[in-house]
Design goal:
Elements: E1 7-12, H1 20-33, E2 37-41, H2 44-50, E3 53-56, H3 83-96, E4 100-105, H4 107-120, E5 124-128, H5 144-164, E6 167-173, H6 180-188, E7 193-195, H7 203-215, E8 221-226, H8 235-245, E9 250-255, H9 267-285, E10 291-296, E11 299-304, H10 305-310, H11 317-326
Parallel strand pairs: 1-2, 1-4, 4-5, 5-10, 6-8, 6-9, 7-8
Antiparallel strand pairs: 2-3, 10-11
Helix pairs in contact: 1-9, 2-3, 5-6, 6-11
The chain binds adenosine-5'-triphosphate.
Adenosine-5'-triphosphate binds next to helix 4.
């Protein structure tokens, strides 16, 4: 592939997710394959502003494909939101001879990249790395599949306690704006109810449904609640409401929190990261800029960054129907 570009940087930005390391490795190795220099930027855009760079060759990314988190570290940089901060970052990239960068992160990181491209006409490329799967232009973001597997395993364990004590558990999972994790783990772990931001069941319907479950012979129940669910103010309020209205159940709450973001990436995420890294570098070498690579109908495709940022990932309606039928 003939290209004028000889040096590409890679950084991880925003919240970490499993698979980021596999993507860093893929970008570095694809650069090595095409005889291009690769530079790792530490601590996201803050490291770009401070010139915190490290050359990466094919061997320096060994042994990281199976590691969670990000070896390049991540950060949220307020300074990069200012024109002065971005100017410093641009000067550092020029000084180092970097001609394009690949950012692995969420929509905030992509917004920063797009602004940077518009200000300095600097080639940028995005790889979606977030467990929430809330990005348009890809059926899966990096880390999402791993998070689903992690959460299903935990809910299976919670169910052991729930059924031993006739308890009702509210399990809160990540997903402030979208319910992909809740819906999928709810179906995968056999939850009785799934509460997601996209659908407001209402407290009364939740109660009716739990009462129906009880009458049908269920002695315990798991309700999976996405962080951003709109029914109650929070999962503890839901607990109080149900306890007041269903004295036959002992109700418990489990908030899973940050453990959902960690851990060794699943095989699916490692493969996806490897494919995305190759496509990101090859797209830059084709002279393109400001795209996000994504998985669409099992093919790695590119979507303009501005569409990826503005578009909404849609909840799977068919899966919502399956969830309904399964909780009969
Ligand atoms: P996550 O999905 O985990 O939250 P994210 O990439 O959306 O990941 P953000 O904190 O929103 O995470 O963004 C990461 C970084 O991108 C910010 O700390 C900031 O440096 C940069 N960024 C975000 N929005 C902008 C913006 N409007 N202008 C410039 N930079 C931005």
């Amino acid at each position: 592939m003939a290209s004028k570009i000889k040096k590409i940087a890679v950084l991880t930005s925003g919240g970490d997710s499993p698979g980021m390391n596999a993507a860093i490795r893929s970008v570095a190795r694809t650069c090595a394959y095409y005889n291009i220099e690769c530079i790792g930027i530490y601590r996201g855009y803050q490291g770009m502003i401070e010139g915190d760079f490290l050359p990466l060759n094919a061997r320096s990314v060994k042994g990281i494909i199976n590691k969670g988190g990000t070896v390049l570290k991540s950060a949220r940089s307020q300074e990069f939101r200012t024109p002065e901060g971005r100017k410093k970052a641009h000067e550092n990239l020029l000084k180092e001879g970097i001609e394009a960068f690949v950012v692995i992160g969420g929509d905030g990181s992509f917004t920063g990249a797009l602004i940077f491209n518009e200000e300095f006409n600097f080639p940028v490329m995005g790889i979606p790395g977030t467990i929430d799967n809330d990005i348009y232009g890809t059926s899966h973001t990096l880390g999402y599949d791993t998070a689903l597997n992690t959460v299903v395993e935990v809910i299976d364990k919670i169910r052991d306690t729930a059924s031993s004590h006739n308890r009702l558990f509210f399990v809160e999972v990540m997903g402030r704006d979208v319910g992909h994790i809740a819906l999928n783990v709810g179906v995968g772990a056999g939850a009785e109810e799934i509460l997601i931001p996209e659908e407001d069941l209402g407290l009364e319907r939740l109660l009716q449904s739990l009462k129906r479950s009880k009458l049908s012979g269920k002695s315990s129940s798991i309700v999976v609640v996405a962080e951003g669910d709109k029914i109650g103010k929070n999962v503890f309020e839901l607990k109080e409401y149900v306890e007041e209205n269903m004295t036959e159940y002992e109700v418990r709450v489990s908030v899973l929190g940050h453990m959902q973001r960690g851990g060794s990436p699943s095989c699916f995420d490692r493969v996806l990261a490897s494919r995305m890294g190759v496509k990101a570098v090859e797209t830059i070498l084709e002279g393109k800029s400001s795209y996000m690579v994504g998985l669409l109908s099992d093919k790695i495709e590119i979507t303009p960054l501005n569409e990826a940022i503005k578009g909404k990932s849609k909840i799977n309606k068919e899966l919502m129907r399956v969830a309904d039928i399964m909780s009969v």
